[in-house]
Write a structure and sequence with these properties.
With 149 residues, the protein is mainly α. The protein has a single domain (18-132), classed as Arc Repressor Mutant, subunit A, CATH 1.10.10. Helices cover 47% and strands 5% of the residues. It contains four helices and three strands, in the order βαααββα. It has helices spanning 26-42, 44-54, 69-82, 109-136; strands spanning 18-19, 95-96, 103-105. Strands 1-3-2 form a three-stranded mixed β-sheet, with no helix packed on it. A hairpin with a 6-residue loop joins strand 2 (95-96) and strand 3. Helix 1 packs across helix 2 (44-54) and helix 1 packs across helix 3. The longest helix is centred in the last third of the chain and has 28 residues, at 109-136. The radius of gyration is 18 Å and the shape is globular. 15% of the residues are buried.
Amino acid sequence: MGNFGLCVQRLPATGADVVVALPDEARTQHIIDCTAKYVLQDGCKLEQYIMEREQGIPEFAFLFQPQSPEHTYYRWRLFSLANGDELLRWRTEPFQMIAGGPRWLPPGRDALQVAQRRSQEQGRLAASLAEAAAASGPRRGADADVGFR
Protein backbone atom coordinates (compact mmCIF):
# COMPACT_ATOMS: atom_id res chain seq x y z
CA MET A 1 0.00 0.00 0.00
CA GLY A 2 1.12 3.51 -0.72
CA ASN A 3 1.83 6.05 2.00
CA PHE A 4 -1.09 8.48 2.10
CA GLY A 5 -0.13 10.35 5.28
CA LEU A 6 -1.62 7.79 7.59
CA CYS A 7 -1.52 9.69 10.88
CA VAL A 8 -4.86 10.94 12.15
CA GLN A 9 -4.18 14.30 13.75
CA ARG A 10 -6.08 15.79 16.69
CA LEU A 11 -5.16 19.45 16.29
CA PRO A 12 -7.33 22.57 16.17
CA ALA A 13 -8.86 22.75 12.71
CA THR A 14 -8.71 25.70 10.36
CA GLY A 15 -11.34 26.35 7.73
CA ALA A 16 -14.79 24.89 7.33
CA ASP A 17 -15.49 21.30 8.30
CA VAL A 18 -15.53 18.79 5.44
CA VAL A 19 -18.74 16.79 5.75
CA VAL A 20 -18.56 13.37 4.11
CA ALA A 21 -21.78 11.71 2.97
CA LEU A 22 -22.48 8.45 1.21
CA PRO A 23 -23.29 8.92 -2.48
CA ASP A 24 -27.03 8.94 -3.18
CA GLU A 25 -26.80 5.97 -5.55
CA ALA A 26 -25.60 2.56 -4.36
CA ARG A 27 -23.91 1.96 -7.74
CA THR A 28 -21.93 5.21 -7.42
CA GLN A 29 -20.83 4.23 -3.91
CA HIS A 30 -19.73 0.81 -5.18
CA ILE A 31 -17.68 2.33 -8.04
CA ILE A 32 -16.01 4.83 -5.72
CA ASP A 33 -15.31 2.19 -3.06
CA CYS A 34 -13.76 -0.18 -5.62
CA THR A 35 -11.72 2.60 -7.20
CA ALA A 36 -10.38 3.73 -3.82
CA LYS A 37 -9.56 0.16 -2.81
CA TYR A 38 -7.59 -0.53 -6.00
CA VAL A 39 -5.86 2.87 -6.06
CA LEU A 40 -4.77 2.32 -2.48
CA GLN A 41 -3.46 -1.12 -3.42
CA ASP A 42 -1.79 -0.19 -6.73
CA GLY A 43 -0.91 3.48 -6.26
CA CYS A 44 -1.43 6.82 -7.93
CA LYS A 45 -0.44 5.49 -11.36
CA LEU A 46 -3.62 3.44 -11.39
CA GLU A 47 -5.67 6.53 -10.59
CA GLN A 48 -3.97 8.38 -13.47
CA TYR A 49 -4.65 5.46 -15.79
CA ILE A 50 -8.33 5.37 -14.81
CA MET A 51 -8.60 9.13 -15.33
CA GLU A 52 -7.09 8.87 -18.81
CA ARG A 53 -9.20 5.89 -19.81
CA GLU A 54 -12.52 6.86 -18.23
CA GLN A 55 -12.55 10.60 -18.97
CA GLY A 56 -16.06 11.57 -20.05
CA ILE A 57 -17.62 8.44 -18.50
CA PRO A 58 -20.31 9.61 -16.03
CA GLU A 59 -19.56 6.85 -13.50
CA PHE A 60 -16.05 8.28 -13.00
CA ALA A 61 -17.00 11.97 -12.99
CA PHE A 62 -16.08 12.11 -9.27
CA LEU A 63 -12.39 11.94 -10.25
CA PHE A 64 -12.69 15.14 -12.30
CA GLN A 65 -14.96 17.18 -10.01
CA PRO A 66 -12.96 17.97 -6.85
CA GLN A 67 -15.76 20.11 -5.38
CA SER A 68 -18.40 17.38 -5.70
CA PRO A 69 -19.71 15.40 -2.72
CA GLU A 70 -18.68 12.21 -4.54
CA HIS A 71 -15.05 13.40 -4.78
CA THR A 72 -15.11 14.27 -1.08
CA TYR A 73 -16.38 10.76 -0.38
CA TYR A 74 -13.59 9.31 -2.59
CA ARG A 75 -10.84 11.27 -0.79
CA TRP A 76 -12.21 10.24 2.59
CA ARG A 77 -12.54 6.61 1.46
CA LEU A 78 -8.87 6.53 0.35
CA PHE A 79 -7.78 7.98 3.69
CA SER A 80 -10.04 5.78 5.81
CA LEU A 81 -8.98 2.56 4.07
CA ALA A 82 -5.31 3.59 4.32
CA ASN A 83 -5.81 4.00 8.07
CA GLY A 84 -7.25 0.53 8.58
CA ASP A 85 -10.97 1.14 8.18
CA GLU A 86 -13.02 -1.34 6.18
CA LEU A 87 -15.68 -0.89 3.51
CA LEU A 88 -18.44 -1.72 5.99
CA ARG A 89 -16.76 -0.58 9.24
CA TRP A 90 -15.17 2.81 9.70
CA ARG A 91 -14.44 5.32 12.42
CA THR A 92 -17.05 8.04 12.73
CA GLU A 93 -15.22 10.57 14.91
CA PRO A 94 -13.97 13.81 13.29
CA PHE A 95 -10.29 13.95 12.28
CA GLN A 96 -7.77 16.01 10.33
CA MET A 97 -6.07 14.59 7.25
CA ILE A 98 -3.40 17.27 7.31
CA ALA A 99 -2.09 19.05 10.39
CA GLY A 100 -3.69 22.48 10.55
CA GLY A 101 -6.25 21.50 7.87
CA PRO A 102 -10.01 21.31 8.20
CA ARG A 103 -11.79 18.72 10.30
CA TRP A 104 -13.30 15.88 8.31
CA LEU A 105 -16.63 14.53 9.52
CA PRO A 106 -17.05 10.93 8.28
CA PRO A 107 -20.43 9.42 7.52
CA GLY A 108 -22.16 8.57 10.80
CA ARG A 109 -23.72 5.43 12.23
CA ASP A 110 -26.85 5.78 10.07
CA ALA A 111 -24.65 5.74 6.97
CA LEU A 112 -22.95 2.57 8.23
CA GLN A 113 -26.34 0.86 8.30
CA VAL A 114 -27.16 2.12 4.79
CA ALA A 115 -23.81 0.86 3.48
CA GLN A 116 -24.35 -2.55 5.09
CA ARG A 117 -27.86 -2.80 3.61
CA ARG A 118 -26.56 -1.84 0.16
CA SER A 119 -23.83 -4.46 0.42
CA GLN A 120 -26.37 -7.16 1.30
CA GLU A 121 -28.58 -6.11 -1.63
CA GLN A 122 -25.61 -6.25 -4.02
CA GLY A 123 -24.72 -9.72 -2.72
CA ARG A 124 -28.28 -10.96 -3.29
CA LEU A 125 -28.31 -9.45 -6.79
CA ALA A 126 -24.97 -11.06 -7.68
CA ALA A 127 -26.20 -14.43 -6.41
CA SER A 128 -29.41 -14.11 -8.46
CA LEU A 129 -27.47 -13.22 -11.60
CA ALA A 130 -25.08 -16.13 -11.10
CA GLU A 131 -28.00 -18.50 -10.59
CA ALA A 132 -29.76 -17.21 -13.72
CA ALA A 133 -26.57 -17.53 -15.77
CA ALA A 134 -26.04 -21.11 -14.58
CA ALA A 135 -29.66 -22.02 -15.32
CA SER A 136 -29.49 -20.61 -18.85
CA GLY A 137 -26.63 -22.97 -19.76
CA PRO A 138 -23.61 -22.20 -21.96
CA ARG A 139 -23.90 -19.30 -24.38
CA ARG A 140 -23.60 -20.11 -28.05
CA GLY A 141 -23.59 -18.28 -31.36
CA ALA A 142 -23.99 -14.51 -31.55
CA ASP A 143 -25.05 -14.29 -27.90
CA ALA A 144 -21.65 -15.64 -26.81
CA ASP A 145 -19.96 -12.52 -28.13
CA VAL A 146 -22.02 -10.15 -25.99
CA GLY A 147 -20.46 -9.37 -22.64
CA PHE A 148 -19.44 -6.73 -20.16
CA ARG A 149 -16.37 -4.64 -20.83
